[in-house]
Amino acid sequence: MEGSTSAQLLSLKEFFNEQINLAINKRNISTFPLVSTYLVDLLQAFMFAETLERETLAEMYLKAMSESSFQLKADMLKRLGDTSLYISGFFGDSLKKKVVDIDYYADLGGRAYDHLSKSVAEDTSSRVYREISIRFLEFVDVLAIVSQKALVQTNEDLLRLYDRYVSTGSSLARDQLLEKGLLPTADMNKKKRQ
Known about the structure:
The chain is about 75% helix and about 0% strand. By secondary structure, it is mainly alpha-helical. The termini are far apart.
């Protein structure tokens, strides 16, 4: 049984690796290679429901910032950053119906990764956290692509995509609408100049 679970995790990791790399290429993102590995590991960790936190992001942030143990603080900040990134990427469209929106998740998640980048001793980890902190919304788009690949595009999904573009100006949403022929190119050129 354990061999079967190990094989499933390996194939899941391979699947996520392929999807993350395709999404990064699709968005034409040039990044530190270990960032894509980090994103693959993040998706694999969130495949299990118990990974999601029950606390609000604000509670997680306050607890982390008041923690005196370096290791516990780092663990809490990592959970906060990872949770913010995952939820923003996979459930970003549903966030606009909430009291807090994707900007709130991006702000707290970016802060968590920024604190981590400054506090970890290992240069490689620091670089990964810094990259995610600075380009948080780009990596949200990468995860959104992976998430959307699993969804069938209905008219309702297309309306949500358009609404996301109008409300956030997401370049991913814009590109997807252009791919589907739902935005005139002239309108896009006008918007880019503004």
